[in-house]
Structures
1.
Amino acid sequence: MELISRAMSLAGKRHAGQRSNAPAEHAECTDAPPGGAAISADSGTSPTQVSQRPSAASVLLVESLYDGDAPADARLELDFVYRTKSRLRTRLTSGEEVGLFLPRGTVLRGGQKLRARDGRIVEVIAAAEDLREVRCSGPSELARAAYHLGNRHVAVEVGDGWLRIRADHVLEGMLIGLGAAVLPVRAAFEPEAGAYGHGHQHGDDAEGGGSGARIHMMSGG
C-alpha cells in the first residue's frame, strides 16, 4: 500500500506542476446574484446555492466537529461529493432539514461526529455509491494503475490489494488497457486524503469572499 500511495502522490505532484500556472478549468460553483441562486458544476445530483445563511428557526445549524464520546442523537447520510462541502443544506435521515457551516476545507468521513447549535450530536454516515474496484496481477501492476489514476487527479480509495474509484467508463477503459480487472461494487467511498478528483474542494475558500458564506443545497431532499 505504501508503494501505491507513493505512486499516486508522484503522479499528482507531476500533473500539478504542469498545470500550476493554468487557470482553473471548471469553477465548482458560480456566484449567486443577490437574493438568487446558481447551479453548481458538480456531477450527479445538482445542488444549488443560496447566498444567505438559513435562519436557525427553520434549519438545524451544524457549525463544529465533535470529538467526544457522547452517543449520536441524529444521523446525516452523504456520498463523498457532499462530504467535501463545508457549506451544505440537506436533510438528516429523520427528514429534518440541516445546514452545515463547517471549517473551510473540511472533508467528512463516515463515523465522524458533528455538534449542532442546539447541542445535539450528529453522526456522519458514508452513503453507498456505485464504484469500480480495480485489481491487478501483482503489487507493481497495481502501483502502475494507481500512478495513472493519480496523474488524472482521480479520487482513489486504497485497500488491501485493490483500488476503488467512482464509476467512470473512460477510466475503466484505461485501466482495462493496463491489464487491470475492473469490477462494479456498491460501497461507501473513502478515498485518500486530498483526493485528486476533489482537489479543488479548497475552492470553498473563495466562497466566503466579502459577501458572506454561501451554501450548497441538495435537490430531491
Note: Helices lie at 2-18, 80-83, 139-150, 169-177, 205-208.
2.
Amino acid sequence: MAYIDGFVIAVPTANKQKFIDHANKGDSVFMEWGATRVLECWGDDVPAGKQTDFQRAVQARDDETVVFSWIEWPDKATRDAGMEKMMKDPRMNPETNPMPFDGKRMIYGGFAPVVELASDAYLDSLAASGPGAGHREPAPDTRPGH
C-alpha cells in the first residue's frame, strides 16, 4: 500500500528559484532512496480562511508564499528505510544544501491513503513512463450502463 509524506512551508517569495534549486537537489535523493514521485507546488490560489488556512498554519508573512509538497512511496517500509538513509546522506546536510525557508515553521506528516481515484489518462501516463510504472488493476466500472 502506498505511503505519503506531506509538507507545508512558507518560502520567501524572493527565494522561489533558490527553493526550486534546493528541491531539485534534495528531491533526487528521495527518489534515489525509493520514493516513486515527489511534487513541490508553489502557492497560486491559496485563499485566506475564516477559522484557519495554509498561511496561518505555517505563520506565513506577507512576503512569503505557501508551498505544498508531498512524497509518494510504494509503502511505509520503503519510506521508513528511505528516510533513515536520507537523514544520513551528506547531500542533505543543511550546511551544503541550506533550506531557503524557515524549517521551524514547516508542518509535515506521514499518511496512509484510504481512497485513491485516478483517470485512465493519468494511469496511461504512468504506464508510459517506464516498465512497471503505474501498474494497477483496473477498478470495475460501476456506472449505470457500463
Note: Residues 26 and 92 are 6 Å apart (CA to CA).
3.
Amino acid sequence: MRKLIGLGLATALATALFAVPASAQTVTKFSILGRQVSSHRVSSDTFAFRDRLLEPGNRSNVLGHDKGRCTLISRAAAHCRVVFSFANGKVKVNGTDRFRQHLSKVPVVGGTRAYNGVSGKSIVHHANHRDTLVDFTLVR
C-alpha cells in the first residue's frame, strides 16, 4: 500500500513539473534613440545605414549601434532588415517601415545571447531625418 501511495505521489509530482502553462512567457520593454552615423545607396531602390544607439533620457549614454538595409517598395515605405547590437546581444527586426507615416510597427524576428529566442515588435518613430526612437516589446 505504501509503495502504491508513493508511486501515485511521484506520478502526480512528475505531471506537475512537466505541465507548464502556455502563458509562461516574459515580456521586456525598452526604448532606444537611433542617431544616424552613415547612410548610402546600394542600388537605385536600396540603401544601407548605421546608427549610434543612445539612451532617450541621457543622449550621452551610448547603448550600442545598429546596421540596416532597406529596399523601397513604394514612395512611402521600405522593407527593412536591421540588426541592433547591444553589449549583451543583438536584436533582429525584419519588416515594412512606413517612414512617411512617422510611425511603423516592425516585427522582431530573433536575437542572440541575452536576446536568443525573442520575438515581438518594434515601434519606430521617425523624429526627423537623423533621429529615430524605437520602442521594443520583446517576448520570450
Note: Residues 2-18 form the longest helix (17 residues).
